[in-house]
Amino acid sequence: MTSDTALPPAPGAQAPAPTTETQRRWARQHSIGTLWETWGITAVLVVLLAASPLLSSDFLTVANLQSVLRESAYLGIVAAAMTLAVMNGTFDLSVGGQLALVSVTTLMGYAAGGTGLAALVAVLTGMVCGAVNGALVTAMRVPPFVATLGMLFVFRGVAYVLTQDGPKTLPYSEIGSPFVKIGGLNIAGIPLPFLIMLACYGAVWVLLRRTATGRRIVAFGSSPEAARFCGISVHRIRMLIFVVIGVSVGIAALTYISRVWTADGSAQDGFELRVIAAVVLGGTSLKGGKGTLIGTFSAVLLVGVLNDLLVSRGVDASYQRVVLGCVLITALAIDGLRTRFAAPGSFARMLPRRRREAPAP
Amino acid sequence: MTTAAPERAVRAADPRARLSRAIENAPLAVPLVLIAVVLTVATDRFLSVDNLTNVVVAAGIVAIPGLAMTLCIAMGEFDLSVGSTVSLTGAVTCTWIVGGHPAGLAMVVGLLVGAAVGLLNGLVVTKLGVTPFIATLATLVIVRGVSLAYTGGRDAIVSSSTLKFLAAGRVFGVPMPVVLTAVTALAAWWVVNRTRFGRWVCAIGSNREAARMSGLPVDRIRTTVYVIVGVAGGIWGLLISSQLQKGSGQLGLGFELDAITIVVIGGTSLLGGRASVVGTLLGAVLIETIRNGLNLLNTPPAYQRISIGLLLVVALTIQALRRNAPAEALDDV
Amino acid sequence: MRTTLSTLALAGVLALGLSACSDSTTAEGGKPSGKASGDVTVGFSVYDMQYEFFQKMEKGTREAVEAKGWKFKLHDEKSDENEMVTGAQALLDQGVDVLIISPFKPDALGPIVAKAKQKKIPVIIDDIGGGGTPYDAIVISDNADGGKQAADYMAQQVAANGAKSKKVVSITCEPSAVYAARRNQAFDQQIKDKGFQVVTELSGNSKAEEAYKIMKDALAKDPDVAGVFACNDPMGVAAANAIKDAGKDPVKGIVTVGFNADPEAITAIGKGGLSATIAQDPAGMGAKTVELAAQAINGGKLTYDDESNREVFQKVTLVTKDNVAQFAG
Amino acid sequence: MSPSVDTAQAPVLEVSGLTVEFPGVRALDGVDLDIRAGEVHALVGENGAGKSTLLKVLGGVYTPSAGTVRLRGEVYAPRRPSDAHAHGIAVIYQEFTLFPDLTVAENVYAGREPHSRWSRGIRYGQMRAGCRELFGILGVNIDPDARVADLSVSEQQLVEIAKALGADGQVIVMDEPTAALSKEEVERLLDVVRRLRDEGRSVVYVSHRLEEVFAVADRATILRDGRLVRTLAIAATDEDKLVRLMVGRDIDSVFHREAVAEGRVVLRLDSVSAGRHLRDVSLDVRAGEVVGIGGVAGAGQAELTQAVFGALPLRAGHMELDGQRFAPSTPADALAAGVGFLHEDRKHAGILPDLSVRQNLTVTVLDRLRHGFARLLSRQAEERTYTEYGSRLRVRATGPEQLISELSGGNQQKVLLARALAPGGRVLVLNEPTRGVDIGAKAEIHALINELTAAGAAVIMVSSDLPELLGTSDRVVVLSRGRVVGVLEGQDRTEENVVVCATTGRRIGVAA
């Protein structure tokens, strides 16, 4: 353990070693292992898309693709924010309740003041929900798992109370409203919800990769104890993460409710689990520190495409569950086995040897 | 909040220790008593024998999987799949009864199915190294799908007195579910506080790496705990099917959260290491009292959700504040 | 490696899933282009195929479509409003000539009907309607009449049982099920007019487990309850079980009435475990929607029972021990 | 067990050609070793020499990549810790393997609880009695029913020892068992070790404290950089020789502290108390000065450094930085004031394993690397920081994008040092700066400390490595039970004085 030579970064480097810094960097960034880690689920998505004509003749039509993109947006938007949380080593189980509550208040906002107020109410409600979660986790020191589990009940309950007299609904007479356009409009053939989702991924990417806060989020997820000694305040970043998730739910709810038009306390039961499943399927480690946005993005689309294919093949709903559950467990089992039997990082080291822990200093 | 026997055995004589133990369970006992008083005043029927029996039976039924879940959580893990197990067990048992098999055999087969789900969870978690949260989340979805596919959306309607006895029968005047719960609770108390297995479960929750280093059969214990939760979920399924006299793919939706909630409210730390059997029982009674009270007051279900959610948050805030060490604030579950 | 394996696994489970469903009821739809006259495709979006009620409705609809020599495309909403909107719109995109929909959330019909209007595809609603949308027609069970019949029967049976008490319990579906709520509203109104009092009205969220507990609590609160009406049969039968477990008789002691005529209710009525239920005719409703669809496609005028609301009623029938034999099987 | 083997001479445990590889690191390289019955065999070597790795192979935690271990002549290849237990090998690890939520008795008997065959109930009475007996042997009084979390560190260490003794192993392996013990407890433990030997058992004894090695061991095996140096009889050697074999050269040449002109006081601690241990510590650190902090493990070093870094709140007293009141409530405050910090636990509280070298290096100074209207991080500024510090510390990595977890320990340590420097390098708080670092990197790190102080930095350095502590600091402050017991300057700065202060609490250079 006291050998002072840097490790070869990749299988390629064990051959005649790259000489210049650029070459080395290229070798590292393009090692097979790294490529798979970042783009793996995307590759699966591409393969599935390529195979889709064999599975369903209806799949590769413009209308159907638009439908898949439009439908995936609200899940994808929240999954982007959730990726931040999971990379930080936490998660938010209350997003389903938030989505129901925000949808209800958004429709109330619309009834009171039209599209502008609805959008404002959506984002504000989400922000408040996130701040409540954040306050519980930071000020009250409740573990995030339980805090957000409890708030899942509370948010849904509040939504139920607000819809005692029946679900909140967008009346049919509002069919021409700009509010409906949020969910329905296509710009250059691309559905607006998908464009909003792209913008959200852009924003989260910038936050994650180009800001100090983003770096701190990942650093903390990688090693909470080390992060403490790097001057990172867990409370500040946790608060921010929960508020970002809340805002993302607010935006997602806009793309959702402007398509679905009705909401009550039961809306999107189990949403939180679908979001976390997408993030994990995208390769983000639940232990924190590791993950990619592109993985989440592709996983969201993968689930959307898979779902669409299963539906259009007429697969029974009960089998659809089994298939989606198996996909999730398979992806994770592979990930689990990989980290269990191989050291992280390099593809070459993955195969022959069993994993051993790094020796204690 | 542990009810560890050795401490009690040695320190029961110490009045201070006894007092501090009493205070430890106060976060549960206080609201329980308060709610009971309020309900006694607000309704004239709360203290009736019928009503209290209802509360105890309902609490007992949820306590059985809750006690198994207590083991799982003491081990620092979760099982989210238990609601689906409820559905599948009931569906299999009732379908077998409808198919003309003896009810006893059908019930055993149902429990075996529950055990199989638990075994699947255990193997996925230990052998494939998947995080319990996600592994059991996936089995939640898969088992629900299997249950729906197995029943084909048709309820299996039975009228079996053997099955009925499980939920509605009485032994010396005591409702059967209460008997079952009492037996389970005694067994759970014994296992948690008195047996090697129980201590090993807490040891794994306390420090898994140390458990491995101490030569404990960690993977076997973890798998066993998942099987126990699976069987307990199966018993839950049998009791529900016994009450409703049917098996269905629709039953047990969201039950996993009920089971986890009573454990957590009962004071078993999500960080693992300690299990509170008495706490889980009290947690079950508390939740069911609230539900019953709100029903007696004709309150819409929305308020039931809110009150249970708030209770969960308050219980955990109290726990977190009592823990009070800044370093532990970093511990995430 | 991870991805290679997950690709393989994905392909594997996909194949598994697909082969498991090769006997699916779906018929592959033809392309809208090149459609000959008479080559009509009917799209049917169903509430949730996991319920027997909707399985019957799907059967009735499909058989009526096939009898006409048309093509049939099914979409399962899986009790999800998002799936409902997306899937129904996808059916429209796939070029169906008429859309029949049994909506999970009628309030979410707006975007679907809007799209259909744009494509000039007629929309027929089955079972649960409303949302103020300009659909072409709705076939609807007469929920209010069902509730009324339940109340009348209950009043009559309570008298026959010789019970003095005028207390009844009303168990509702989830608050969002507005059309099912009509059953309880009509029941409550009618039973009050008969001099009874609704002492407990709670939502069992359409779930049997919850209804069981509610009934137990209701009995503890008012042991002298004379009757109970539940918004659907799983809850009705669960309430009857709770009554039995409390040592009372769900026919002779407390008049128990459900709604739907699900097999479990029919069985229970036959065995004296339930007083009555209100039968809907899902298969008949399905057939009726196809008739309306035929009228719409041919450009003819649709025949309504209630012109102003474009409603076509499907009669509901009270099922009691006397006529239960007709509904068995 | 084959009773025919002559226990007096035949080795109980034979290790031959043992090699253990971790990704990129060869922690053990072809080590041969034999342990006889009835001997105490010391295993010595510097940090990172491979001692702990060897023990973990014996304990079934690591699987060797090559080589064999024979136990009483038969191949012994444990695949998990329980295999070691089954073969009668008991290991006391350096990191505690205790269960904080369980009682002392439950810990001591973990995995082999006596229980009733019929009811499966644990026999707590028997366990309590057994514990009392074991603690009687160790001469301590610990309540078998106390929760381990409530015990002091030294009591926990004793529980750990009792756990291994209770296992009744024929081979008992102890990794730094005395690190947290008081002098009397150490004496008693050494007695126990001698008694175990007299009973015919074998003890493998790993310790940094050579006086303990000379007090109990019969033979010693010296490891260096994962390789076997030599096995020799204790009677035939002395401390100096042993140290030379461990280090591989004379000690004097290793450390070289250049004389630096002392400047003004940069950091002043005035009667500071913090954490569970630290009491009433006053200390001045001047520009250009290295203040070494010594003492036995757990004497308050960690509390002292963390208090300065704002990671531990002060219970009493106050601090000054450049004459201004300095009250950091978080590490972020300290970093903003230009205080750099190096944690002693590199693996758990140092590196951010999933991040690149560049990201690890810049994490403490992110606020300074933002630019433009949106205050986004500047990649160029980060690269510049990497180039500056990376080359200054001679970090050997394939580039800024390499993951830090792929670097060797020494290079990781250099990156962390660079991280500590980046906030400004005015005050540096370094915990064990060369722990687990090879000799070459060690020298580089020492040279770097010289450079920094020459440039005016004030350094507080904690080290458990006595030669390093004395060789690299201008002044050594010795802590004992959280109090300053010695301030050693000039000629007083000797190993003997440090050891005397640390272990006896006698005061030198400080008023009573």
UniProtKB/TrEMBL annotation, chain A:
Keyword terms, alphabetized: Cell membrane, Membrane, Transmembrane, Transmembrane helix
Membrane topology: Multi-pass membrane protein
Subcellular location: Cell membrane
InterPro entries per UniProt: ABC_transp_permease
Transmembrane segments: 39-60, 72-91, 111-132, 144-162, 182-208, 237-257, 291-310
Principal cellular location given in the protein's record: membrane
Name this polypeptide is given: Ribose ABC transporter permease
Record has Transmembrane helix as a keyword: yes
Positions of the UniProt region annotated as Disordered: 1-23
Coiled coil regions in record: none
Compositionally biased tracts (Low complexity): 12-21
GO MF terms, alphabetically ordered: transmembrane transporter activity
CDD domains: TM_PBP1_transp_AraH_like (cd06579)
GO cellular component: plasma membrane
UniProtKB/TrEMBL annotation, chain B:
Transmembrane segments: 26-43, 55-73, 80-99, 105-126, 133-152, 172-192, 223-240, 260-290
Key words of the record: Cell membrane, Membrane, Transmembrane, Transmembrane helix
Subcellular location: Cell membrane
Membrane-related topology note: Multi-pass membrane protein
InterPro entries tied to this protein: ABC_transp_permease (IPR001851)
Annotated Gene Ontology cellular component terms: plasma membrane
Protein's name according to its UniProt entry: Ribose ABC transporter permease
Lineage: Bacteria, Bacillati, Actinomycetota, Actinomycetes, Micromonosporales
From TrEMBL, chain C:
UniProt GO MF annotations: carbohydrate binding
Periplasmic binding protein domain ranges (all copies): 42-300
InterPro entries, per database record: Peripla_BP_I, SBP_2_dom
Subcellular location: Cell envelope
Keywords: Signal
Any one annotated GO CC term: cell envelope
Pfam families: Peripla_BP_4
Gene3D superfamilies the record matches: 3.40.50.2300
Range of residues in the leader sequence: 1-22
Recorded superkingdom: Bacteria
Predominant location: other
Keyword Signal: yes
Family designation: Belongs to the bacterial solute-binding protein 2 family.
Protein's name according to its UniProt entry: Periplasmic binding protein domain-containing protein
Biological source species: Micromonospora sicca
From TrEMBL, chain D:
Annotated keywords: ATP-binding, Cell membrane, Membrane, Nucleotide-binding, Repeat, Translocase, Transport
Subcellular location: Cell membrane
The keyword Membrane is assigned to this record: yes
Taxonomic superkingdom: Bacteria
GO cellular component terms listed in the entry, alphabetical order: plasma membrane
Ranges where the ABC transporter domain occurs: 13-250, 255-506
Keyword Metal-binding: no
Entry-linked SUPFAM superfamilies: P-loop containing nucleoside triphosphate hydrolases
Record InterPro entries: AAA+_ATPase, ABC_carbohydrate_import_ATPase, ABC_transporter-like_ATP-bd, ABC_transporter-like_CS, P-loop_NTPase
Alphabetized GO MF terms: ATP binding; ATP hydrolysis activity
SMART domains cross-referenced by the UniProt entry: AAA
Topological category with respect to the lipid bilayer: Peripheral membrane protein
One Pfam family matching this protein: ABC_tran
PANTHER family attached to this UniProt entry: CARBOHYDRATE TRANSPORT ATP-BINDING PROTEIN MG119-RELATED, GALACTOFURANOSE TRANSPORTER ATP-BINDING PROTEIN YTFR
Name of the protein described by the UniProt record: Sugar ABC transporter ATP-binding protein
